[in-house]
Automatic annotation (TrEMBL):
Cited InterPro entries: Biofilm_reg_signaling, EAL_dom, EAL_sf, GGDEF_dom, Nucleotide_cyclase, PAC, PAS, PAS-assoc_C
Protein's name according to its UniProt entry: EAL domain-containing protein
Organism: Luteimonas gilva
GGDEF domain span: 462-595
NCBIfam families listed in its UniProt record: GGDEF (TIGR00254), sensory_box (TIGR00229)
């Protein structure tokens, strides 16, 4: 890939515009009656030539884009300064970003770990005429990484030198290599890899730990020295020494065929130790090769078995277990003691019919057929059969048979019987485990996807419904009581779901606290909705953990095939969207998928895309809602409220875009902008002579986790020369329930700065008093959810009185939100709540409108 590639991509808009202008001028000259005929002929020729040139350029551009997008690996064009100039369709799919999020930005957007001088070695290699290959980890839009092998080469792009980089995804290869190494290190079978050698035939290049153990080799011992041919004598099962050409390893190398189940004696001359192994040799071909270059030896130590009795010696080449022999003429069946033990019969079978009676009915006919073929055409057999012992326990055997050697009439048949019960049980366990969620015992994600795919692919299948079930407030239990209680909740929830759904659908734990139910509607179109109602009823009772009780409800989304999708992922995605719509509307409910939901999904994606660039495009602004002394009406502080106006989407309500920002993580950047903008505004008011106005801002829990909040606040205050008392930070109750040492440390650091710390919307969550008293906070904010119901709603009155009592008992300040009527104000004053905010006093005001309020508030205006 070291050569230079010319990408014909006529994207120069100025050149295209100039060409089009020239065409128009030519057309005007041709149509001008004053133009001489000879000149008009030349002009027509020039016009046609220019038309052809433009058409050829457009065709070249389309060919380039078609070829570029046809490359199956993520491919990008990179400028010499590291800027991404173009990206193909495979790249957009791999990085899960639209083209405009990458093109025009530094290559660090795909690989943030690159050093500053990362282009230097690339250019050096390309200048030498070499290609440049490197393995790195690239990043998707959601922050996840995946390994790639990047091949870079020169390319001419828009008439200038650039670099084309092709990224090959290595995830599958890395996973395969890792699993291969783990398998070799963990199995109890010896594995040795032999390499072809022109001088000595074969030499060992690697061996797994089991091989070292079987041959008594120390870990890390030199294999070529340990397996030096002169130190070993290799004999066959009958004790005859084998030449190098007779040895199965050389036969596998010479013929390119697998040499199976050969019993060899390995006699080590220096130590005079004999080790018997049962070995299979597998030739290994290099890519594109027609002859093997290596041979794998896979073996078991059968030394102890070789020392057993003569009958076992005779049959061990087949299965290393007990033997059987059937005399067809006398109808006598002879079994070794090991076989009698395997069959678990007090009276061992003495005829083949009695042996058949030990097997399950559906396994008798395959054995009878195999015995007949063995008699008729001398065709050996190898069967896995299931039977029952006298104690009622099932067993599995591997039965191998062959005719008596040298007897054309095949009057005697013999073979081995091996107990494979444990292997079969282990296979069943592994098969079940591969499809089962280990915590709840339900089907897991892979299993339900497979079942759903099979159902959707069945011709004539009735309509299928997918119910997507998500537990509401599960994280609260997990955070408050710990993961053990969270696991207990998931197990109990799974039991309730199974009890509600019964046998009417397939049930799976899809991940986390999400469950999936797949059912065919059949002749009952209302079955999915009936199941959804039964599930909601199952979650009506609370969940108890010791002395604590939590109300955990469920939000359910329903999607139907084929109306809402005919592929598993599409159907599940739409059910998931319906579930989130149900959770948004009202928890503990269900919602079916609709085309309107699909449109909302598209709208959400559009919002998130614009939101990601809103801060950079200066689309945010703050308004300030006064916080008022409820008795005297004086403005004593303000809360900064963010507003977003996008030139395409228009004015967006905070309750719409804040949730999206929390989901995508953009809230961290937005919160940083709010912090700095609020401090800048307070500084500006101070410069205008209004003194220090304390401004409250909301801090997201994601923002609290993602950065050193105390350092960010310290820097913002220092930048604008403000004291800590100019700032109030409002946190949700989620910060309380974390109760981690880092949380307390951060709060102490903020308090030392003089910042006022408040818990917002107190009373909506599950906070207990011990959480409140542990953190060094200054005050609480009484949620408008409760304020709006006073003084008439007695439940809201009770909550307000409780929160006011908590604030008084802990010596905390209290601010009431959402005060909209005089009756509410009077109630709060009588309750002893000192400060309030809401539409009764003012909505969020622009900075200049807010200072007009300050002009009517001399105490604060000249503070």
């Amino acid at each position: 890939m070291g050569g230079r590639v010319n990408a014909q991509t006529p994207t120069d808009l100025d050149s295209q515009a100039a060409a089009e202008a020239t065409l128009r001028a030519l057309e005007r000259a041709i149509d001008d009656p004053a133009t001489p005929a000879s000149t008009r002929t030349l002009l027509v020729q020039a016009r046609d030539a220019l038309h052809a040139s433009l058409a050829e350029a457009e065709a070249a551009r389309k060919r380039y884009r078609t070829m570029f997008d046809a490359v199956p690996d993520p491919t990008s064009i990179i400028g010499l300064d590291g800027t991404v100039l173009d990206l193909n369709a495979a790249g957009m799919a791999a990085y899960r970003r639209p083209r405009e999020d990458i093109v025009g930005r530094p290559i660090h957007v795909l690989n943030p770990d690159l050093p500053r001088d990362h282009m230097d070695p690339v250019l050096e290699a390309l200048d030498r005429g070499d290609s440049y290959v490197i393995e790195v980890s690239n990043m998707r839009a959601d922050g996840t990484r995946f390994p790639v092998e990047v091949h870079s080469a020169n390319i001419e792009y828009d008439g200038r030198r650039a670099i084309v980089a092709v990224a090959r995804d290595l995830s599958t290869r890395w996973e395969s290599e890792s699993k291969y190494r783990l398998l070799l290190e963990s199995i109890d079978k010896g594995v040795v890899l032999f390499q072809a050698d022109q001088d000595s035939g074969l030499h060992a290049v690697s061996a797994n730990p089991a091989a070292h153990r079987i041959f008594g080799l120390a870990p890390g011992e030199n294999l070529q020295r340990s397996f030096k041919p002169a130190d070993w004598k290799i004999v066959g099962e009958n004790g005859q020494e084998l030449t190098a050409e007779q040895q199965p390893a050389m036969r596998a190398m010479r013929t390119g065929q697998i040499i199976e189940s050969t019993v060899l004696g390995m006699f080590h001359l220096p130590s005079r130790q004999m080790t018997w192994i049962s070995v299979t040799h597998v030739p290994v071909f290099s890519a594109g090769g027609s002859e093997p270059t290596q041979v794998f030896a896979l073996f078991s130590d059968v030394t102890a078995l070789k020392r057993d009795n003569a009958l076992f010696d005779r049959t061990q080449a087949l299965a290393h277990v007990g033997g059987w022999e059937w005399d067809r003429v006398n109808q006598q069946l002879y079994l070794t003691g090991e076989v009698r033990r395997i069959l678990g019969r007090g009276n061992a079978p003495e005829t083949m019919l009695e042996l058949l009676d030990c097997l399950r009915p559906h396994h008798r006919q395959p054995l009878q057929t195999a015995l007949n073929r063995l008699v008729d055409v001398n065709a050996g057999f190898d069967l896995e059969l299931q039977g029952l012992r006298e104690n009622g326990h099932a067993f599995w055997i591997r039965m191998i048979g062959e005719a008596e050697a040298g007897n054309p009439s095949a009057t005697r048949l013999s073979g081995t019987i091996q107990d494979i019960t444990q292997r079969k049980q282990a296979e069943d366990v592994l098969r079940i485990q591969a499809r089962t969620d280990p915590l709840t015992g339900l089907m897991n994600r892979d299993a339900i996807l497979g079942e759903l795919s099979a159902m959707l692919g069945t011709p004539g299948q009735d309509s299928i419904a997918v119910l997507y079930v998500d537990l509401d407030r599960f994280k609260t239990v997990n955070d408050v009581l710990g993961h053990a209680a969270g696991d207990e909740l998931l197990v109990t929830a799974a039991q309730r779901i199974v009890g509600a759904a019964g046998h009417e659908g397939l049930i799976a734990r899809f991940g986390g606290d999400e469950f999936l139910i797949v059912c065919a509607t059949g002749d009952d179109p209302s079955r999915p909705e009936r199941l959804a109602n039964a599930l909601l009823e199952a979650f009506r009772d609370g969940f108890r953990f010791g002395e604590d009780e939590f109300t955990i409800t469920a939000s359910i989304g329903i999607a139907y095939a084929p109306e809402d999708g005919n592929r598993p992922q599409q159907l599940i995605q739409n059910a998931d969207a319906a579930m989130y719509d149900s959770k948004r509307r009202v928890r503990n409910g269900w919602q079916t998928f609709t085309p309107e939901l699909a449109q909302r999904q598209q709208d959400r994606l559009q919002i998130e895309t614009h939101l990601r660039r809103a801060a950079d495009n200066d689309e945010f602004h703050l308004v300030y809602q006064p916080q008022v002394d409820l008795r005297h009406g004086r403005v004593i502080a303000a809360e900064a409220l963010i507003r977003w106006e996008n030139h395409q989407l228009g004015e967006m309500r905070p309750d719409v875009f804040i949730g999206h920002a929390e989901t995508t993580g953009d809230i961290v950047r937005i919160g940083g902008w709010v912090l700095r903008e609020a401090c800048r505004q307070v500084h500006e008011w101070r410069e205008q002579g209004y003194g220090i106005v304390r401004v409250a801002i909301n801090v997201s829990y994601r923002q609290f986790l993602a950065e050193d909040l105390a350092a960010s606040v310290r820097d913002a205050l220092a930048e604008f020369g403000l004291p800590g008392s100019a700032l109030e930070l409002e946190f949700t109750e989620r910060v309380l329930i974390e109760d981690a040492p880092d949380t307390v440390k951060t709060f102490m650091a903020l308090r030392e700065l003089g910042v006022v710390l408040t818990i917002d919307d107190f009373g909506e969550g599950y906070s207990a008093l011990n959480y409140v008293r542990r953190l060094p906070i200054h005050g609480l904010k009484l949620s408008q959810l409760f304020v709006q119901g006073v003084p008439d709603n007695q439940s809201d009155v009770a909550v307000c009185r409780a929160v006011a009592a908590i604030a008084r008992s802990l010596g905390l300040g209290l601010v009431a939100e959402g005060v909209e009527s005089e009756a509410q104000r009077q109630f709060l004053v009588q309750l002893g709540v000192p400060v309030g905010q809401g539409f009764l006093f003012a909505p969020g005001l622009a900075p200049d409108e807010f200072v007009h309020r300050l002009d009517r508030n001399p105490d604060l205006a000249h503070a």
